[in-house]
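Write out the bound-state structure for 1,3-dihydroxyacetonephosphate.
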Amino acid sequence: MKIREMQDEIIRLKKEKDICILVHAYISHDVWEVADYVGDSYGLAKQAASAPQKNVLMCGVRFMAETCKILSPEKRVFLSHPDAGCPMAEQIDKAVIENYKKNNPDRTVVAYINTTADLKTVCDVCVTSSSALKIVENIENDKILFIPDSNLGGWIKEKCPNKDIELMQGGCPTHILLRKEHVERMKEKHPDALLLVHPESRKEVADLADYVGSTTGIMKFAKESDNKEFIIGTENSIVQHLQVECPDKRFYELSKECVCKNMKLTTLADVYNMVKYGESEEIFMDEETRVKALRSIDNMLKLGG
Ligand code: 13P
Ligand code: SF4
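---
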């Protein structure tokens, strides 16, 4: 079967079977082309809440499918690949936060959305990279614990000096690979290129960036900018998408190492097998976990607008 034929069959079947296909920005472009919605974690969460279809296929990683189930318990939610997890989501144990809260009852626990549903049950508010600054500013309490990404947390802390933000050690094993030396090398090779970076990157990289933002933010910036060349400091699939969407511009990977193994698991064939044969992992969640985790996601949607 040719890629185009597979895509046409997916588009036909998803309508017939009432399936909404949500695709994260790090998934490959052939999957993007069959999506009902493509975007960053915040956009996906909002779409998950409003999509009219009875079934949702989340092409991304597990916490994204869980978020979808938390917001839409009446829908059947499927994850594109059963092994696609986000290692950062599992870096902090629920017991650690429960214990922290006992000792620090005056702090609001803010969790990056890249956390398990179980961990979300003991957090107060979720944020995504695109909504974090606005939400942290909007939280009434000035005393905050931010988990698990200390790079994103450090970036927010710098931008919100009026808040007392405590961090825990955690982070993305993919973005952590980006170093200042990569910036120096690429800037030397492409002196006219602007550097666009995800806030999960180290401070030494973010400090040198012309723009820091979510996957959607990076793509929007590159598309709207008059500049013709860009060095992309996030997962390398964004380079591929931008090259397709802006053929008159040039995009360079900050480092060839910045590849998320988990996002790379999902292929067009996984999507095809789900819509054609129902071969995909369905997400189930006990109601107590769902309701407790919902509070932090609801707070995110309220404070994030
Ligand atoms: P975005 O919210 O920017 O899409 O980030 C999600 C993610 O996992 C980045 O590594
Ligand atoms: Fe998780 Fe990093 Fe992959 Fe994003 S890029 S899904 S944070 S491991």
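---
The mean pLDDT is 96.
Residues 61, 86-88, 114, 172-175, 200, 235, 260, 262-263 surround iron/sulfur cluster (ligand 2) (CB under 6 Å).
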